[in-house]
Amino acid sequence: MRAVGILGGMGPAAGADFVRLFVQACTRHLQGQGLPVHDQAYPEHWLVQLPMPDRTQALRSDPQSPAGPAAHLLQGAGRLAALGVRSVALACNTAHAWHGQIQALFPQLRVLHIAQQTALYLKAGGARQALVLATDGTYDSGLYDAALADCGIAALRPGPAGRARLMQGIYEGVKQGDMPLAVQCFGEALAPLLQRHGAVPVIMGCTEIPLALPQASQARGAELVDPAWILACALAQDAYAH
Fold this sequence. Notes:
This protein has helices at 12-32, 55-60, 69-82, 99-105, 114-124, 136-141, 143-150, 160-173, 179-197, 227-240, and strands spanning 4-8, 45-49, 87-90, 110-111, 129-133, 154-156, 202-204, 224-225.
């Protein structure tokens, strides 16, 4: 087994939840291989939670500001590298705007890419279109547009009103601990998209969204895709790779 790392703090609840997803992914791997499941069967894994400056604000002002997330992300990756991890997952979609910079500075690490992993997952399932629910920063960076296009999948986005509801649910809801507000906002953002586009996969492209959207009545019956789960499974595969 290989030591792996999780770079979190974006926000802390999403980072902590990613550890849960990773452990679940490890359990599924062990069961799928017919291996016994016990404490010693799980790989060494490290979580670094740093108080990260807001990613969306940074992308809209100065992505390389010394006070911005870039320096903090590189610091966190450096700590994981010093611990001897081989692969790293970023527990934040928007933070992948700095993915290339992290990978270039730490070539000894395999920095997994959440959008690329998600696009490959959807391609394997035969998807041709997918709704992307995300932060303004993720939309502005084109993170999912590029990854999905590489796999022949069209990215569908909400309009300004829907994006505003998503941002409200993320920042005033999940990040401030108001989960009922988050459920309401995410559900109201999703409903008109499903009416317009029909039954297409829904990418929950912010690690806060899966913490609330599945509880929304508007999401019942929808094909919700959790990139954090897909990324956790990829990290588990790396951890057990020979």
